[in-house]
Known about the structure:
Layout: H1 2-17, H2 29-35, H3 51-61, E1 66-72, H4 80-88, E2 92-101, E3 104-119, E4 122-130, E5 139-147, E6 152-153, E7 162-171
Antiparallel strand pairs: 1-7, 2-3, 2-7, 3-4, 4-5, 5-6
Amino acid sequence: ECIPTAVSNSLKYLKKHFELEFDSSYASIDSVKKAVKFGEDFPNGTSLLHWHEYKKAYMDSNGIPITTRRIDSIDVSGRIASLIQEIDDGQDIELSIETIDNGVTYGHMVNLVGIQRLGNGRYNFIIQNDIAQDTPGGTEQETLVYDTTVNKFTTGKFWDYTVSSVVIECPSPPDPSLVAPDNGAPGVPLDP
């Protein structure tokens, strides 16, 4: 239930941070499960490729003023400064992460809440991960080292995972000063 939980956490954060007017029930895990078609695409999950489209349709059909921007197959190393700016501007970021073990791909969804530069192409990614989903107090924060030289996490429980996509959410319409370049535009240069 990582996708419904991450989306629920995102909606709750955006509602509170930007004082958005929508009924809190839209952010419940049960409502979000229906919205992202949990159990329809996969028996115990939802599509890592399409959940953001389902979420956007849910926001639009219910008049919830939140935009959803997805950056596919992201080269995180070239976007670090842009992601830091998004976080500094109060945007919400969800990371789809994955690893391959014995030919099987395993995916997970976490919220990215902070980034700290370590040097030599390494960054602390501070993630929020709901380990006890749908249970009050089940969310934990963990700091993972992301190494841009190999484009993988090199520490923590998600060691050897890559970032397969990034979804950035903010109130709609987004303030142009808060929006990073789209997929085709050059990103903010990587800090040396």
